[in-house]
Design goal:
Blueprint: H1 11-19, H2 34-44, H3 49-56, H4 66-86, H5 88-97, H6 99-110, H7 118-141, H8 144-166, H9 191-211, H10 216-232, H11 236-247, H12 249-257, H13 270-298, H14 308-318, H15 335-338, H16 341-344, H17 360-393, H18 398-414, H19 427-450
Helix pairs in contact: 2-8, 4-7, 5-19, 6-7, 6-17, 7-19, 8-9, 9-10, 9-11, 9-18, 11-18, 12-18, 17-18, 17-19, 18-19
Length: 456
Amino acid sequence: MKKWRLPTWGYSRMLSQNKHADYGKELFRVDRGFYLIAFIFFVVSGGALLFFSKLSGVSGRGGGNVLFQLISLTIYGVCFYLVIRNHAKSALFIVFQSWPLVLLLVLCFFSFLWSVEASTSIRRSIALVLSFLFCLYVVCRYQQSHIIYMIWFVCVLIAGFGFVAVALPGWGIDPNNYSYSMAWRGLSGHKNDFGRYMALGLITSIYLMFFSNFRKIIFAMMSAVFFAFLILSQAKTPLASALLVLCLYPAIRFYVVGNFIEKNRAIFGTYSRMVILTVCTALVITCGYLVVEYMILALGKDLTLTGRTTIWSYALMIGEDRQWLGAGYRTFWGETLTGDFDYYNPYWVTVESFRNGHNGLIDVYLELGYMGFFLFLLFLAVFFKKLFLTGKSCTILRREYIYFMSIFMFYLIYSVTEQVTLKQSEFLWMILMMFFLCISKNFKLRRLRGEGVLKI
C-alpha cells in the first residue's frame, strides 16, 4: 500500500531560494512593497497607537478607538485578499503545519460561547485572527532574513517617531503620570510599551551587527540609540529582560546549533544537548531562586513586584469558578468579574477596570481555562522542539534560529510580569506568530526533503 504524503505544492523552489540566500547584501534586496508593509506593520502593531488615541479621544486598541480599528480592519482585509489570491496553497501548507497555534486561535474565537462578555470576545478574537492573517501573508511573501530586517525597520520607525513625539508637549511624555513624570512613551502611548519596542530593537540590532555583512556601523549606532531610549523609557522589565537574554546568548546558541562559537565544528548531538541543558537549567533555577530577592531590590521594586503578586492572588481567586474554559478571550479584566479590583489592590488606584493581570501565563488560564492553558503549553513545546531539531540539521537557518530563540526567551521572561500573550495587534506577539509559522514551514520541508519527496 502506497504511503500517503502531504502535497508540497511547489515548495522546492522556495526552499532553494532560502538555500542560496546571502545574509549580507541579500538582506536589503527587497521588492518595492517591503517598506510599505513594514510601515503598515508599524501602524497595526501599536507603534503609533497614541496618535490614533489623540484623534479619537479613546486610549488603547479597543474600547471605542474606532479610527484604529477601521484602519486595522482595512489593512487586514487587504492582506486576507492577497493571501487568497496569491498565496493560497502555500498559506494552507503553513497553516496545516502550525496546528498548535491555529487550535489556540480557534479556541479564542469560539470562547464567546461561554464568555462573560460575548461581544467583547467576538470583537477582539476577530482582530486576533486578522492579525494572524497579516503574519501569514508576510511569511508567505518574504524570506526569514527579510522578516528580521522588517522587524528592525519597524523598531527604527517606532524610535524615530517616538523621538519626534517627545519634542511635542503632551505626546512623547505623559504629563499625567506623576510616578514617572519624565519617562518616554513615544507614540506607543505607554512607557512599558515603548520600552518593550526599544528592547526588541536592541536585541535585533546587536544580532544584525554580528551576523550581517552589510554596514555593521549602522546596526552598532542603532544599538546605542535603542539602549538609550530604553533607559529613557524608565521601563525596568524590558531592560532586565533584554539584558538577561543577551547574557544567555551562549546558552541560546548551544540550544539551537550545539556549539558556542561560529568556527567550532564540534557539534554536540541531540541527546547530549538535552542532558547538558537539563542539568544547566536546574542549576540556573536553583541559583536564580537564591538571588531573586537581591535582584528585585536592586531594580527598585518590593517583593510584591509593585503589587503584581497581589493582582495574581486576586485573579486566581476570582478564576476558581471558571477553571476549565475560563472567562472568555480578553474578558476577565472587565467590569463583570473584576469590578472590585481597586478594593483588593492597594498599589494602583484606577478609575476604570484593570486591563490585564501583568502575567501572560496566568492570563491565558484566566481567559481560556485549563483547556486553553494546555494548548498554550503545547504551542510552547512545539516551538522549542522545532527550534531544537531544525536548527541543528540546517546550516542555513542556524543564525536566524538563534535570533528566533533570543526573541522567544525575551518573550518568556517578559511575560512573567507583563501581558502580551494572545494580545490582538501586539508587536511582540505578532513577531512570535511569524517565527512559529516560519519554523513550522521549514521543519516540515526539511523532513520532506529527508524522505525524498523534495528534490533540491
